[in-house]
Every structure is written in C-alpha cells, then in structure tokens.
Amino acid sequence: MRKLSATVGALLLVASLAACSGSGGSDGASSTTTKAPAGEQATTTTAGSDDDGTTTTASGDDETTTTSGGSGESGDAASYAASLAKGLASGDAASDELQVTDDEAACVAPKWIETIGVDALTSFGASPKDLEDPDFSFPDLKLDDEQGLAMIDAFVDCDVDIYGQFADVLSEDLDATQQACLEGELDEASTRQYLASALTKDEMSSDLIAKLQAIDATCNLSPAG
After folding, report:
1. What's this model's pTM, rounded to 2 decimal places?
2. CA 20 to 30 Å from 204, out of 16, 34, 50, 179?
3. What are phi and psi of 45, to 5 degrees?
4. Closest CA to 136 of 71, 53, 75, 44
5. Number of CB atoms found within 10 A of residue 37's CB
6. What are the pLDDT digits (tens) for 169-214?
C-alpha cells in the first residue's frame, strides 16, 4: 500500500518532487528470456524471488516483449481482497502511515480489487501474498486516473477519514499561520486528486505539481534558505 498520508504530505512540503515509489511486488525478481524460432514472437517474463533466471536464445528474426510482475501466483477476487486488507491495516502510526482498522480494511479491499480487476493483477504477475506488503507499488499496475479516484473514494465509502489523516500529516511542524493557510488553499476536490495521483502514479502530472508548488509558495511551507 502506498503510504498515502506520508507520501502526499512529503510531496506538498517538497513540492518540486514527484510521488515516491514503493517496491513493486516481490523483491529478488528473476528473469526468463526465450527466443522463439524465426517468425514467432519471443517473450521475457520477470517473476518473483522463488524463480531462477534462465535465458535461452535461438537465431532468427524475431520480436521480444517484456513483462514484469510479482511472484506470479494468481488468485481469485476474495483471496486478493483478503491479502490486501492485511496490507491496508498494517500502517504504522509512528511513521505517519495511513491508519485503517481491520474492519475498515475489510470494507475497502474488495472495492479496490473490483476497481483494479483480477485480470490486471494476474497479468502483472502479482499474487495475493504480494498485496500484503504495505510497500506494494500500485503505480506499476498502470492504473488510470478514474481508477485512482475510485480507490480514494472507497476510503470515504468505508468511513475512513482519509482527508482528516492527510490534514494531520500536513499540519505537523507547521505553525498556526501555515496551518490556516493550508486549510484555505486545500479543498477536498484537490486533495482527492493529489491522493489519487500519489496512489497510482510514479510521477505526478505537471499540473498537479504546479498546484502544489503554488500552495507551497503561498503558505510559505519550505524552510528558509
């Protein structure tokens, strides 16, 4: 799970940076490359840490495509949702990570899986176990803007105070004047966009970055010097 509160808070306070990325699926991924006979398409698949890298090459004019993903073990919607719920509920308050109760996570997770789609997860190679990792990188799934917004809306639908947690992170280390300025500059619609972008993109759009930079300048958030 992308640590939404900390990620977007850092983006706002250091507005020139794009969204930070987590690890994509399982660590230690290995690759298998197979070159097909002439005229046929070859594929390269990056799997999880349990697989060894093997390369087989044959001569011929052929095209190679590459697919990367998690451990490669697929599951059904229920198993993905159960694992995702564990990941969502594993946030560390001391690290300003998103705080979601077990019940809230059990509500949010199936909505996320429905939005992402089991086919997208299996095509990527992400197993249910991969989604237990709180640092699973959802941007690697190449989700679109509407999916990102739907995933943020799932928190609201499940009574998770995502916007309140976001505001709490932003308020840390700010004086009363800066906090009041932020409250005036950050409306819920914009915050929804920032959170969705942090969840689904490796880099925020230039438009969103410009808006964050403007807020940074208006509210004097960056340290002097």
Report:
1. 0.67
2. 179
3. -120, 130
4. 71
5. 10
6. 777 788 999 989 988 888 888 889 888 988 888 777 788 888 888 8
